[in-house]
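quick one before i forget lol
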Amino acid sequence: MCTLEKRGEVFILTLTGSGEHRLNPTLLDGIQSALNQVRAAATSSSVALITTAHGKFFSNGYDLDWAGSDKVRGDLMTSKLRSVIADFITLPLRTIAAVTGHASAAGFILARCHDYVVMRKDRGFVYMSEMDIALVIPAWFHALVKNKVGSATAVRDLMLRADKVTAEKGIIDLAVVGAEETVEVAVRMGEELVRRKWKGHVYAGNRVGLMREVLEEIRKIDTRTGSRL
């Protein structure tokens, strides 16, 4: 469901296949395994990570069909996503999402937790769908979106209007025409960042400082399950 390859000092994590890349435990475990490999590599060299996906979707959010009405499944799925996002925030390297298709709800959270987002502008949108499907957005989603999206108006329109926002609306870092071109631009950006040769632990420490409130929300005790990351 995902692959990890290395081009020079840039890792590329790809969500494979033509489906919606719904976030279920199997896919989230695969992503976390890849992050562990990249984290290990960063201990001995300066590297960057690109996350991208095949097909029409970057990710269409949680796998609600898999969870169904089963509370245990739902709790497992959300706990694993919280763990994955915490891992991204603490990685000792630069991270870039190359978004070549739609990124919805938890899929947008996965994309926007990266340091940079490069997005295809001729196809795809980001979309917080919870208003449209009658779900309350978790507090840690709110914290991450407010941390990453500078405009209060843009945050409102994402979270309270469920607007479908294209790349040119300014809530991502760079808009590019074409899927392959989006990935290539992200790779070049990663290569440029690697050449700065910043120390990984310093980079991670500064990112954690910027996103401390997000991490605190992620790691709060889940009152439904009693679990803490």
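fyi Residues 71-90 form the longest helix (20 residues).
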